[in-house]
Amino acid sequence: MVTTRLSLAALACVMASCAYGQPTSTKYVAVPQFPAVEPVAVQVLPAEPAQRHERLGEVLLDISVDPPASVEDIEQRLREEGAKMGASAVYVIRDAIKPGESRRLVGIAIRYRQ
Prior knowledge:
Elements: H1 2-17, E1 24-27, E2 43-45, E3 53-64, H2 71-84, E4 89-98, E5 102-112
Parallel strand pairs: 2-4
Antiparallel strand pairs: 1-3, 3-5, 4-5
């Protein structure tokens, strides 16, 4: 009984410390499909690059503000989701915070043209 309560308490602490809901990725229609890449190969950019590229889809992150997520953690999530689409980079188009509630970040996954 004590072990069960401790397990439930530990699980509650882990769940409370998570700074994310499930990330959502949406691939655009009529865009070529690319194989997944390693997340380390995906750049995170502050704006749309001037270099020629193809837009692959959108990445949506719902992030809690308590506890706040680190910039490195957010960028890693963007890389992971972009990598699933075969992206070369992800750039952020929206970063909105509702004080005390949540933070919603939207990025565009792109692949550079050759």
